[in-house]
Amino acid sequence: MVMATTAQSPEILAHDPLTHVPPSPGLQGFIGADDYEALVKCVHCGLCLNECPTYRANGLEPDSPRGRLYLIRAVAEGTLALTDELEHHLDQCLVCRACETACPSNVQFGQVMEAARHAILEDHAPAPRRALTSLVFRQLFPFPKRLEAVGRLLRWYQRSPLPALVQRAAAFGLLPKRLAVMERMAPTLNDQFFKSPPSEVVPATSSRRFRVGMVSGCIMPLAFAPTNDATVRVLAANGCDVVIPHAQRCCGALAAHAGDESAAASMARANIDAFEAFGIDEFDAIVINSAGCGAQIKGFDHLLRHDPAYAARARRFVSKVEDVAEFLARVGLTAPLGPVARTVTYQDACHLVHGQGVRSQPRELLGQIPGLTFVEMRDSTRCCGSAGIYNILQPDTSAKVLEAKLENVCTTGAECVVASNPGCLLQINMGLRERGVAMDGKHLVDILDEAIAAGRRE
């Protein structure tokens, strides 16, 4: 356990911004009044410190949730200038939201951090960074066909001799380290990407009980097509008509984490429109199999709170959204399950356990599979260091966080690590490969799909 220390950057934390109250919240326009209200709930008790992966890795107060809240508040109140050093400490945050679970004051740290990053991007980021962010999150991610074209290029690249050349060049310092990490982390893309059927509806394959919408995602159809297919099969086998709107878009999570609030809001509106076309009230649930996407989507009501055309619609939409494990545990499995003779452990994805409060449901579902042996992982709720594209932008800190996670994974002696988020699976599988460990990571619905298939064979 990392003990709380007073280690800090002297120039940044030489004063305590909590010793006075500004004339008005958000006086300098750095963050809005409601985000400032969330910020000042912090009573600087320090219970968040040992839950923070970057504080545990670096031992620096500015790299803790409390320290970052100090910094954001000081900038908002105009008592501290926004410098490159300060921005570095904010960029080091994984936004894993473990601090929210630990916080007795219910500080919504993720909300505050994304507001600060939005302000930095809008008013302080250099032009090249703003241009790149706009290109990625406004010209690429909102357009499935463009993403699919990129996926096809990546698939061609993976089948060429280029990956080995990239790794060798990076080892000699000829290419950036983050490029090598990106290449190693990328999953092997399948020959076929996931696609919604022309009818946009997959009928239940057992007695119909529910009508659900499915968020297919932007990366999931390309990098985890079999998992999306498995999700549809599992839902259909448990009596669900599954609606997969063609018009849905990226949820906007990566844009929000990068500070592009406008792009994230635009994508939120597009997704609400896509599902409303089928009648929101006709859905028993809108199901998502990616923890990071789920946390973002469940925050659409906050993101669009000031939009008169969408605020109420966002609240109604969010009321229907559930993680696939959350939904299946609530309604119960009806498909017969066959044996899966495997020892597994479970990784709590940060944005599932901390962002959505879903912890027991995946374990409950795994416990219903015959022949499956479950081994609990020490510190299963600790971040793995993926955090969207954090492992690419901050490879050194990400590697420290991953190393601690792999120690706990390997200690279980399991054959398989089950998780409910693609980022976790990419990060952990990369770490296991590099360690030469004969263990792999699988999504929860892949295990459930395997059990249902085994049940049909019996």
SSE map:
Blueprint: H1 33-39, H2 53-58, H3 65-77, H4 84-91, H5 98-102, H6 109-123, H7 127-139, H8 144-158, H9 162-171, H10 177-185, E1 201-202, E2 210-215, H11 220-223, H12 225-237, E3 240-243, H13 253-258, H14 261-276, E4 285-288, H15 291-297, H16 300-303, H17 311-318, E5 321-323, H18 324-331, E6 342-346, H19 350-353, H20 360-366, E7 372-374, H21 390-393, H22 395-411, E8 416-419, H23 422-435, E9 440-443, H24 444-457
Parallel strand pairs: 2-3, 2-4, 4-5, 6-7, 6-8, 8-9
Antiparallel strand pairs: 1-3
What does the model show?
This protein is an alpha/beta fold. The chain folds into four domains: 17-125, Fumarate Reductase Iron-sulfur Protein, Chain B, domain 2; 129-185, no CATH class; 201-329, 3-Layer(aba) Sandwich (Rossmann fold), CATH 3.40.50; 336-457, Rossmann fold, CATH 3.40.50.11810. Helix content is 50%, strand content 8%. The protein has 24 helices and nine strands. The chain has helices at residues 33-39, 53-58, 65-77, 84-91, 98-102, 109-123, 127-139, 144-158, 162-171, 177-185, 220-223, 225-237, 253-258, 261-276, 291-297, 300-303, 311-318, 324-331, 350-353, 360-366, 390-393, 395-411, 422-435, 444-457; strands at 201-202, 210-215, 240-243, 285-288, 321-323, 342-346, 372-374, 416-419, 440-443. The strands form two sheets. The chain has a five-stranded mixed beta sheet with strand order 1-3-2-4-5. Helix 9 (162-171) runs antiparallel to helix 10 (177-185), helix 12 packs across helix 24 (444-457) and helix 18 crosses helix 20.
